[in-house]
Amino acid sequence: MKLYCSLSSPFVRKVRMLLEETGRGDEIEIELVKTSPMAPHETLRSANPLAKIPALARDDGPTLYDSRVICEFLDAHFQSGLYHAGWDSKVLEATGDGITEAALQITYERRFRSEDHVLEDWIAAQMGKIHAACAALNTRWMSHLKGPLDMGQISVACALGYVDFRHPDAGWRQGNEALADWYASFESLSSFAATRPE
């Protein structure tokens, strides 16, 4: 199998963390691609019509895309048990992915619009989603986050790592001390350190 990816993508990081945690990364060929909404990579687009990463080309079926689809497929393929909490694992993964999507919207707004056309209200709305999700994690999900490792935790950690990477002044830790402490502890995981964006 071949994984199309960029090492700075938080969605790719989720998949790479799964591979690190399972110790099966040597079974997947890594193909680094440079792609963006405005300039999609042609080889990637032939594998994934949306030209998004990550995309997992399989030997025996169509290419899989969307990090949640890929992670669930690999989890089943490797029997790694990273969805052991069922729907809770999946909802927490969706929450982390939602934070990532909001942070990406801010990144794209600033990267692909000229400075005089950047919509600050749009950026503020996306930042509001990040803060609301972090508050929910801090008040409702700490017992799960502190439990056995699963894809929900990986998704949340990759999302917060991306916010720090691209938007270091987001201030998500303020008022979310339990979440901030959990994240500080999670950063010590070898799989998280090994997949840090460049």
From TrEMBL:
UniProt entry tagged with the keyword S-adenosyl-L-methionine: no
Entry GO CC: cytoplasm
Family annotation (InterPro entries): Glutathione-S-Trfase_C_sf, Glutathione_S-Trfase_N, GST_Omega/HSP26, Thioredoxin-like_sf
Keywords recorded for this protein, A-Z: Transferase
Protein name listed in UniProt: Glutathione S-transferase
Domain GST N-terminal: 1-82
Pfam family, one: GST_N_2
Record organism: Epibacterium ulvae
Molecular function terms, GO-annotated: transferase activity
